[in-house]
Amino acid sequence: MDERTRIILKSGKDQSLRRLHPWIFSGAIKKIQGPAREGEVVDLYDNKNELLASGHYQDGSIAVRVLSFDPVEVDQQFWDEKISNAWQLREKLGLVSDPQTNVFRWVNAEGDGLPGLIIDYYAGTAAIQMHSIGMYRNLKAITESLIKTGGKRIHTIYNKSESTLPDKPGITERSGFLLGDSESGEVLENGFRFNVNWMQGQKTGFFIDQRDNRKLVESWSAGRRVLNMFGYTGGFSVYGLGGNASLVHSVDSSGKAIDLTRQHVEMNFPGDTRHEAFAVDAFGFIKDIKNKYDLIILDPPAFAKHQNVLNNALQGYKRLNQKAFEQIAPGGILFTFSCSQAVSRMNFRKSVFAAAANARRNVRILYHLSQPPDHPVSIFHPEGEYLKGLVLEVE
Question: For the domain 207-394, what is the CATH code?
């Protein structure tokens, strides 16, 4: 193994590594022995010179993202094993061979031991998002591993890291095709059809993480009047119609998203008059819908991407949920979510509790929701559980 730059931690700052947490913050570093180059593999030592881990170095708040807690050569074999192990987990979950679903997350960053790397699979396309310079430096090796593991199941690989890679000098070609040239394609999720554009859509093109929660909405929709707020391309709306809702209304501020919602409804339920879509501000729409809906879905974009805006985010969740509690019909069901990593499950629940109290409605928790198992969370990295949700009955 080549001699690598050594990072020595301050006394006591090694405890997170001993608990197998995969991040080291810049403030924990005592000294650096050797050149500290962005994206290169460094070795982490405690103050007594004991090797603890190896990972990608980056000049920023998170200084090192750990790749291994054991001595390891980060070569092609390393990437092959990691990518293959992630695929095998999805095989165990039944996703690879499911005739009703051909879209899933292939690599989920820390959850698959590859911090800084997201790969989503869309019926033969692998869409990559890199969040660290270390992953960018290894894009060729990662691509080779995807082709080797996916085999005939892969015809397109698209790198979509324009908005996720940190702004560093020398980082070029943040997005582009690495294999094939398909810009979009049709996928199946639980038997429902959706068009996904990995070049233009949000995230890698589709919100795969809500798959199981959409299925739960389907099971609660029969005979109900459903409102899908912040509906994006209408995933929850399609499931509501599939669950025999009496009507489904979709709301999103983006006219393009509403157009895609209508397209997805037409693909799955041609000519169905139960659905209407509105390209309007969600906060304005929810103010005047008293008793019109008895199942409401609140799935807003992340209110807090960083800890320094956490309090404002929690207030935002409280105001939004309070409006829903005030407006929903008696006996209604509320699905409410936060996708903000900075918002803990407990803080989200407290915001919803305060909203219910302010609305003076009696509310009961029916389900606690999270992301599906193809978005695994390392038990040593609780921050990876970014998606939180509650299903509530409002008397």
Answer: 3.40.50.150
